[in-house]
Amino acid sequence: MWAFVKSFFVPAPVATERPTANSEAGRYVRSFLIVRLMIGVLGVGWPLLLVFLDKWFYDGHPGSRIPRDSLSVYYYSGMREGFTVILGVIAFFLFTYKLTERNLDNTLSVLAGLAGMTIPFFPTGRPSDITPAPALNPLQDAIGEDWTKWVHFGASAVFIAALGGVCLLFGRREGERPKHGNLLPRRFWRGYHFLCAGAIGMAALWIVATTVGRDPLIHGPYWSLLLGEWVATWAFGFSWFAKGAEIRYLFGLDQPNPDAAPAVRPA
């Protein structure tokens, strides 16, 4: 039993070989890399779409403060569907990312996926700048706005922490991965993903320092939470974009040794 449980906390092994890019197995790997790439694009584009489309198309209505306090507050804006749909797409992919495997990568991505799906179901508290205040949704009405808000905060914390952990694992694997045709050395990519994980960690510390308690440690602008969430989301997005953007392999230009044993695990 312990061996079974322990397997969920052991990092995924590093893939040493890949099938040729144009083989049947290679097309499967390329599809997986494209999905990684698109999740990275969504991660980078999500805060941009929320903030700027809310300004351009809705002029910040309802409410008056532009930008809003946080990404989560866009649940109450004209970009509500953009907030929930894009986050839902990212969360669902994270949940299914390595679902058939038993390793730490799967554990963290499943946690991130579940947390990401929880965030829009349990929205944050209603912003004070909207008059009259938005109506409570049925869940807020049933269990109370405060309880709903605290579940939202907890899910957001798990989401950010798990995404940072996945970026660390990306860096670990890149550091141990054999040379695979990238122009930049593996040491660079290890540092790149570690830097993304570090940015997520610093963003989390910024959020805590500027928002927790009645007298926060740092008195930042009212959009301090938005800034922290934006940095964490971008760090996650850039990490995943880079992990999927293996251009030579994606376009069938990278041809590993055809005599090597095929391995379909994406590295």
Provide a brief overview of the structure.
By secondary structure, this protein is mostly helical. It has helices at residues 2-6, 24-58, 80-96, 104-121, 138-143, 145-176, 186-211, 224-244, 247-250. Helix 3 runs antiparallel to helix 4 (104-121), helix 6 (145-176) packs parallel to helix 8 (224-244) and helix 7 (186-211) packs antiparallel against helix 8.
Could you characterize what this model shows?
This protein has helices at residues 2-6, 24-58, 80-96, 104-121, 138-143, 145-176, 186-211, 224-244, 247-250. The model is unreliable at 256-263 (pLDDT under 50). Helix 7 packs antiparallel against helix 8. It has one domain (28-130, 137-250). The protein is globular. It is an all-alpha fold and 267 residues long. It is built from 9 helices and no strands. It starts with a helix and ends in a 17-residue tail after the last helix.
